[in-house]
Amino acid sequence: MTDPSAAILSSFSSALAELVARTKPAIVSVHSHRLRASGFVWKPGLIVTADEALADEGEVSVKLADGTTRPASVAGRDHTTDIALLRFDAQNIAPVALSSVVPDLGSLSVVVAAEHGAPTAALGTVSLVGGRWRSLRGGEIDARIELGVRLRHSHEGGLALTASGEAIGMAVQGVRRVLVIPSATIGRVAGRLETHGRIARGYLGVGLQPVKLDDGIGAMVMSVDKSGPSAAAGIRQGDVIVAWNDEKLAGVRSLLRALGPDSVGSVVDVTIRRGGEPVRIKLTIGERADA
Question: Which of 87, 127, 168, 245 has the most CB atoms at less than 10 Å from its CB?
Answer without folding.
Answer: 168
